[in-house]
Amino acid sequence: MTLIGVRAAHPWLDNRMRVTGFQPILTDDRWNQSNLLLGQAVCSVVEHLQLHPPTITEFTDEDLASQNNAFLNGAQPPSYTSVASVSSAHARTRTEESEEYHIPFAFPTVPDSFKELESMTGEEMRAMIFDDAAIVNFFASNEKYSTHTDLQKQIEENNLMSAEKTLARKDDILALNAEVSLLQEKLKGKIAEYEPLERRYAELSDPPCKKSILKKLNQARREASVESDNVSEKLISGDVTVDEYVKDFMEKRTLYHDRAAKMERLQHS
């Protein structure tokens, strides 16, 4: 577990803001012996940090810093906030969008004592525990509880406003999604065309290996030999004159010996 967005001092926190002072997680043996579930452990840590809050020395998160750095310098904290923040599907920036809903805030602190309970007897307290109406009335008269309730209501109202504005842009978002999907399909087609060209370019730009060149030269040499033999057969069958035979045969055999010589030179290079 790690404290995010701030640097703070607390016996349970190390210099990386990791929770290391919670007894059941100090060692594997203690964790196994505690028989705690992960959720129970997290709740215990959160409850302890609420009752014994750390001393915040710096806000490392930009949003938290913009709202709360003034508090570190002695300014009085404002009372409420909203967590609503809507991203626009158009050219409006995130800052412009958040300004629409921003209300400064500070969470109410947990009181160290309840004066209303100090004057009650044990019997009165036990009776109130089993009287739902009495408990509701007790908390309704508590200033901290009322502050927290007002904060919760304001957050819910602003979240509702945010959701309604998002739904109002539903058609624009769907149209943008369709446009993005179309562009994705076009991109896939372009990539399918590009990849074979890229492989062909790599084949042409890479220096050929000696073995493949020898293979191609040998194939071409054999073809030249077959062609020269075909010219000789044409002479025997009377399909060409002697002059035509000499000219064609010399061309084919010269090509044959040229390729054979190149193979020999390459083999000994």
| Helix/strand/pairing category | mainly alpha
Q: What is the N-to-C succession of helices and strands? A: EHHEHHHHHHHHH
Give the oligomeric state.
single chain
Helix content: 55-70%
Low-confidence stretches: 76-104
Mean pLDDT over the residues: 79
Q: Compute the gyration radius: what is it?
A: 42 Å
**Biggest sheet character:** 2 strands, antiparallel
Give the total of beta strands: 2
Main-sheet strand order equals: 1-2
State the end-to-end CA separation.
67 Å
Shape, principal axes of CA atoms? elongated
Proportion of residues in β-strands: under 5%
How large is the count of helical segments? Answer: 11
Structural features:
mainly alpha, 269 residues, 65% helix, two-stranded antiparallel ribbon
Written description of the protein model:
It contains eleven helices and two strands. It is elongated and about 135 Å long. The chain is 65% helix and 3% strand. A two-stranded antiparallel ribbon has the order 1-2. It is mainly alpha-helical and 269 residues long. Helix 10 (210-236) packs antiparallel against helix 11. It has helices at 28-34, 38-51, 62-72, 94-99, 115-118, 122-129, 132-140, 143-168, 170-205, 210-236, 242-267, and strands at 6-9, 55-59.
